[in-house]
Design a protein that fits this description.
Layout: E1 3-5, E2 11-13, E3 27-29, E4 34-38, H1 44-87, H2 89-110, H3 119-134
Antiparallel strand pairs: 1-2, 2-4, 3-4
Length: 135
């Protein structure tokens, strides 16, 4: 690989990177009008991989701790709900009945109009159809 010395005394590689090698940052020396790449240490890739592994390990630990926190929070919510139900059984029953009633009411309101059409309207349609058949 051709090399060229610049005025600072560092050696620059003047050929491009080979396939599969990391592309190093290029330098333009304005004193000598030389363009090249500073020599790269061989263990840079190992150092970079080590740093990436450490980052992945830290992220895994953060995800694990977040999962544990969520599990603890859900457990506390369950215990508090159980205590509330034991302490106020009648109020809980009334609340659950109201929620069930609202659910039934909402499901009937959201069902298709053809299925829940008023019986008077169906009777009127039937009457109209019978009259058309007679005429």
């Amino acid at each position: 690989m051709p090399r060229r010395k610049n005025t600072v005394g560092t050696t620059l590689d003047t050929e491009g990177a080979k396939i599969g090698e990391p592309v190093p940052k290029g330098i333009v020396d304005i004193n000598t009008a030389a363009v090249g790449v500073p020599r790269q240490a061989e263990d840079d890739l190992r150092t970079e991989l080590s740093a990436l592994r450490q980052q992945v390990d830290r992220l895994q630990q953060q995800v694990i701790s977040a999962g544990r926190s969520a599990k603890v929070g859900a457990g506390k919510a369950v215990l508090e709900t159980e205590a509330l139900v034991k302490h106020y059984p009648l109020s809980t029953f009334v609340l659950m009945t109201a929620i069930a009633g609202l659910s039934v009411f909402a499901s009937r309101q959201l069902s298709s109009p053809r299925q829940r059409g008023p019986s008077a309207l169906r009777d009127l349609r039937d009457f109209y159809d019978r009259m058309r058949e007679r005429i």
